[in-house]
């Protein structure tokens, strides 16, 4: 039966999720034991019932003491009594014990007065609790309200969804109204209104905090993704820059090789005499001021460019000289031809 009830609740819960997607699902719970312990009417009735139970326990204790005295008296006087008197006293003790057991069963048995009166005491309070829960659920638009102390197992329940204090407050208000005058009822109504406003503000603050936490988590996730994206772009840019630098170095090496520039050997390819012992280098260091590899390379590049420029200038000068010589030869040839073809004047 319990499994069937749980399955029905779960089915209803699952069906309601689809209908509550737009505004969100609101769930609350109560602790019936806590409510009963703090309900004013239940507390008074429970105290009265406990007084009755205490009185019954005293009666049982007195009966037990009386039976013990009878047993002790029989034990002491057994040698002085006849067999008929002994049997009579034993029957009386058995009768007293059976009456005591019947009294205990009547008062504290499974169907005894204590259990029955507890059920009678709890029933009206439970009805009031159910009514208060329905009013609170309708007012605050809860979709489900569970009882934490029932057979339904709740592994975890956040305190912010516990409405037990609201139910206790609602029961206390109902109990007070029956004892107040009209003016006191007005004051109590104002007080209740202020408490309801505070509860509404508290609910709003709780909902706002939940939304803020969700927004903070979402913003944190977005920031983390943006940081990862920026890091990825930076890594890609660094790799592209490294490739471009490597390609530029290769092109420069090819240009230097074509221009006849000698690339200085790397430390791994240096001759054996250049990789001498540290002691020899330490001795040569004070007397030699060796330029750095970068400055040597830059100097060689500039010398290669100057040599190339000089070579181009020489070629242009040679072409200019050749052209001037060709023009001069043409002019000389033309003059010679003109001188040979000019007629001589006749003699007189």
Task: Give a topology summary.
Elements: H1 2-19, E1 27-30, H2 32-38, H3 40-77, H4 83-108, H5 113-140, E2 144-147, H6 164-177, H7 182-258, H8 278-284, H9 293-341
- The coarse silhouette is rod-shaped
Alpha-carbon distance between the two ends: 164 Å
| Fraction in helix | over 70%
As a percent range, the share of strand residues is: under 5%
Largest sheet: 2 strands, parallel
The arrangement of helices and strands along the chain is HEHHHHEHHHH
Average pLDDT number: 77
Helix vs. strand class: mainly alpha
What's the helix count?
9
List segments where confidence is low: pLDDT < 50 over at least 5 consecutive residues.
265-288
Taking all Cα atoms into account, the compactness measure Rg is: 57 Å
Q: Which strand order do you get reading across the main beta sheet?
A: 1-2
Number of strands: 2
């Amino acid at each position: 039966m319990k499994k069937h009830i749980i399955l029905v609740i779960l089915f209803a819960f699952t069906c309601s999720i689809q209908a509550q997607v737009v505004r969100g699902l609101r769930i609350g719970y109560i602790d019936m034991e806590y409510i009963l312990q703090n309900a004013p009417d239940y507390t008074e009735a429970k105290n009265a019932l406990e007084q009755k139970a205490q009185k019954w326990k005293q009666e049982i204790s007195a009966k037990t003491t009386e039976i013990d005295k009878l047993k002790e008296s029989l034990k002491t006087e057994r040698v002085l009594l006849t067999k008929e008197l002994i049997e009579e006293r034993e029957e009386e003790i058995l009768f007293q014990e059976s009456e005591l057991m019947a009294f205990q069963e009547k008062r504290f048995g499974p169907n005894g007065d204590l259990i029955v009166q507890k059920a009678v005491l709890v029933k009206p309070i439970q009805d009031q609790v159910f009514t208060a829960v329905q009013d609170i659920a309708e007012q605050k638009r809860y979709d489900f309200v569970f009882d934490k102390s029932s057979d339904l197992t709740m592994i975890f329940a956040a305190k912010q969804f516990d409405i037990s204090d609201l139910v206790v407050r609602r029961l206390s208000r109902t109990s007070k109204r029956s004892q107040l005058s009209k003016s006191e009822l007005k004051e109590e109504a104002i007080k209740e209104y202020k408490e309801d406003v505070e509860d509404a503000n508290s609910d709003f603050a709780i909902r706002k905090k939940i939304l803020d936490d969700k927004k903070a988590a979402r913003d944190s996730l977005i920031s983390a993704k943006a940081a990862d994206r920026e890091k990825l772009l930076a890594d890609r840019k660094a790799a592209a820059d490294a490739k471009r630098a490597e390609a530029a170095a290769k092109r420069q090496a090819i240009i230097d090789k074509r221009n006849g520039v000698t690339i200085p050997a790397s430390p791994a390819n240096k001759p054996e005499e250049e990789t001498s012992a540290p002691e020899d280098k330490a001795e040569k260091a004070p007397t030699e001021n060796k330029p750095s590899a970068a400055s040597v390379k830059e100097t060689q590049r500039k010398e290669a460019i100057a040599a190339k420029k000089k070579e181009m200038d020489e070629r242009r000068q040679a072409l200019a000289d050749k052209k001037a010589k060709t023009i001069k030869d043409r002019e000389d040839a033309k003059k010679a031809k003109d001188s040979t073809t000019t007629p001589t004047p006749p003699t007189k």
